[in-house]
Amino acid sequence: MSENTIPNTDLRKLLSQKKPSVTRIPCLVIFGSDHIEKIHPLHYPVEKNSIVIGRGQQSDIILSQEGVSRQHARIDKHENSYIIVDLHSLNGTLLNNEPISQAILKEGDKVGIGEATFRFCLLSEFQIEFEEVHKTKVVNDHLTNIATKPFFLEMLRKETSFAFRQNQPLSCIILDIDHLHTINEEYGDAAGDLVLQEVASFLNEGLRSYDVLCRYGGEEFAILLRGTALDNAMVFCERIRKRIELLKIPFEGREINITLSLGISSLNPDYIQDSMDLLREADRHLQTAKKHGGNQVCSQRSKL
């Protein structure tokens, strides 16, 4: 027997030794068809042992799905147990497809709150971090660190459906950096990348937490403004256009000036039936803005 070989009896003893315990965090997990879509860790504040779930801004976990009440349900922590309590919600709370007023949660339980469906899971910090990193790589553009086009299109579909059902305004913006190819030719590709990063950062800072921004194409970005009608979307876009026009981006001792062309569409049941109609309309107005020289905002109200 080699001196590095562990006898079977010793190996069994080694494997039977108690391993260090791993802290597991209670989470509500949304699963897609073959992947985890979102993890909501239940981080309980020191001063309270309950977490409220609902669509209201005061909720600890905010859900925007259809059928969720302002304060829909609560998950109480009692020693090592977790109890879900329905807060007299309009559509009720389901546990494993059965309506409940309150119940003790077990790992793997299916929780239904409005149209949102979760699994109650106990995950290690490593598992949570791994999933978040993986999701970031899939969802975020590597250069600008904002959302990718596939993620934006999925959010557009969901937000358009929700806005139609609730009769809420929704605006879509597609914008283009004018003459980015000229900047690449004059300053080099590194300058073009810097311009994309600066514009992405600028746009991101001006958005609300529930708005969606993505890199839509090479020099194109797309924005989804929830609860925003055409008039306010036009004001928003014009403010962006003017501020970008004044922006000077330093690069190797020189300053790069840029302008934007922006196309806007807003929900209108007369000629927009779905999310792709909304997108096509915004793109059509963008092309009109560029055709007329760029550095302007165009919508169905523009006289171009």
Q: Summary?
A:
With about 300 residues, this protein is an alpha+beta fold. It has helices at about 10-15, 125-140, 150-165, 180-185, 190-205, 230-245, 275-290; strands at about 25-30, 35-40, 50-55, 60, 75-80, 80-85, 95, 100, 100-105, 110-115, 115-125, 170-175, 210-215, 220-225, 250, 255, 260-265, 295-300.
Written overview of the protein:
The protein starts with 7 loop residues before the first helix and ends in a 6-residue tail after the last strand. 28% of the residues are buried. The chain contains 7 helices and 18 strands. It has helices spanning 8-16, 125-139, 149-166, 180-187, 189-205, 230-246, 275-291, and strands at residues 24-31, 36-41, 50-54, 61-62, 73-78, 81-86, 93-95, 98-100, 102-104, 110-113, 116-124, 170-177, 212-215, 220-226, 248-251, 254-257, 260-266, 297-298. Helix 4 crosses helix 5 (189-205). It has 2 domains: 21-135, Tumour Suppressor Smad4 (Sandwich), CATH 2.60.200.20; 140-298, Alpha-Beta Plaits, CATH 3.30.70. Strand 1 and strand 2 form a beta hairpin. 33% of the residues lie in helices and 30% in strands. The strands form 4 sheets. Strands 2-1-11-10-7-8 form a 6-stranded antiparallel beta sheet.
Which labels suit this protein?
304 residues; alpha+beta; Tumour Suppressor Smad4; Alpha-Beta Plaits; 2 domains; five-stranded mixed beta sheet; 7 helices; elongated; disordered N terminus
Number of domains: 2
Whole-Å distance between the termini?
Answer: 88 Å
| CATH superfamily (homologous) name of the largest domain | Reverse transcriptase/Diguanylate cyclase domain
Cα gyration radius (Å): 25 Å
Counting copies of identical and different chains, the oligomeric state is single chain
**Discrete helix count:** 7
Largest sheet report: 6 strands, antiparallel
- CATH secondary-structure class of the largest domain: Alpha Beta
- Major sheet strand order: 2-1-11-10-7-8
Beta-strand content: 25-35%
Low-confidence stretches: 1-6
Q: How confident overall, as mean pLDDT?
A: 87
Give the helix level as a range of percent. 25-40%
CATH topology of the largest domain: Alpha-Beta Plaits
CATH architecture annotation name of the largest domain: 2-Layer Sandwich
Give the tally of β-strands.
18
Apparent shape = elongated
Topology order in helix (H) and strand (E) letters:
HEEEEEEEEEEEHHEHHEEHEEEHE
